[in-house]
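call fold(seq) -> tokens
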Amino acid sequence: MSSLTLATNQADILASLRRLRGKGTVGDVVADSGLPSDAVRVGLKSLLESHEGHLAVTESGDLLYDFDPKMVERGTEPFFVRFGRAIGRTLRGAFKAWIVVMLVGYFAVFVALVIAALFANRGNDSRGGWGRGRGRGGGGLPNLWFWYWIWGPRWRLGRPYYGQRWERTLDKDDKVPFYKKVFAFVFGPDRPKATRKQVDRSTIRLIRARNGVLTTAELVEHTALPFGEAESEMGRLLGAYDGEVVVSPKGELVYAFPELTKSVRPEKGARPPNPAWLRLEYPLELTGNASTANALVAGMNAFTLIAAATSPWFIFPRLGLGGPAAFVGLVLVPVAFSVLFFGIPLARMVGVKFQNKRRYARNVRRVLLGLVYREALKGKPVGVGQAHEYVTSRLEGQAVTKEAVQGALDELAKELDADVVSDEAGGLRYAFPALPRELRASESVRRTLALEKRELGDVVYSTADTAVEAGERELRLFDKELAGDVDLDRYLPATDRVDFEDDYEIVAFDEELQRRGRGAR
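ret:
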């Protein structure tokens, strides 16, 4: 099918979906648009990649394509949001340049003025001596700051600074310049923004490790996305990586990606990426700097602020300075700058605290997922007290409230249509039967697709099976695997522990490749 024909078909399919208010089966779209069924299937899969939507199953077992009624494209933002962000980047860049000039420049000026004022009454010889010292760098201070600021022979202009944890991973020659730490003091460290390709790389590893077959529950296990968002993401992956959909006899959607398993170097037992509970989020840092760097930057600005504020009584009389120009240049401007320099981080503190609360809630959810998945595979419900104890023991040093844990359990219960009952003591217990059903379905499809690569074993699929017989066969196979034929670590690795992952880790590989490429040229 040519690209022109595909584009024409997509336009017709989009028009049909708008008339259908975003929802329809292949048959609905065929009936509305008059296009061939194969063309509609291809077009709908492509639209799942480009537009907000996901797949569902009707009561009759047909696939239902469920898009946003407005047919919103993925990743789109209003023009004014993008325009405002561009203006913000420009203003921030200009302000950063002004910060360096003001902080370093005014610091050096006031060091010189304070020394001059201290020696002002010692006669011409003393002043001359100070002048000769100033020519050598004022006791070395200006030269020290100058070399400390620019020293970094391997540092590239525009390279991000993600904070001290990231800095400790660099080679010793990749010293972070002082000006980057000044910027981080005011605006916070750079925050990596992963591209779609970088995010997908981890998901593709997961798909390949699971022999090209995945369910929404398995995607959630590794990303901790809300199930609604995970369903939409699975729809996008389906369109982006030429996936196919299988509906199990019990109505679960299983996504197969045969193209992603093909390789000239097949990897048996490929290691999947870490699950969500091994990828907890560190709290955001206000500056990202070490305490010594913060003290140095704050000390420089505090010195400038104090020297400027007291200069009309200390510096001006001793050096014979005065007039509106001196007052504006040596009092108003540096005082306003220094107050703003301290004020921006103080204002940012509110936003950092808010974002850390959200990170804390996501971490609670990620840890809780490990417990929920583990107990669901055992067929056991999860109690609020049990969940609170589990999460608290793994998030040591954090005040985990029972309300936060129960709130996360309630959200998971809504997303998974869990069974919630009260125990004898009046506490709530949550059962998640949908999780093992999804894993049974994925394992059944996984084994079926891999039959040609395995030795002859138990029958896992037969065209003569009725829906009931197929479902019973799936249950027997899954029970057999859980009894010991399959290592449970493939489903739930390391539920006994948690670990953290830095934001920059997902982009570090590509940034290192880019840096090496520039170095090679």
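The domain at 1-76 is CATH 1.10.10.10 (Arc Repressor Mutant, subunit A).
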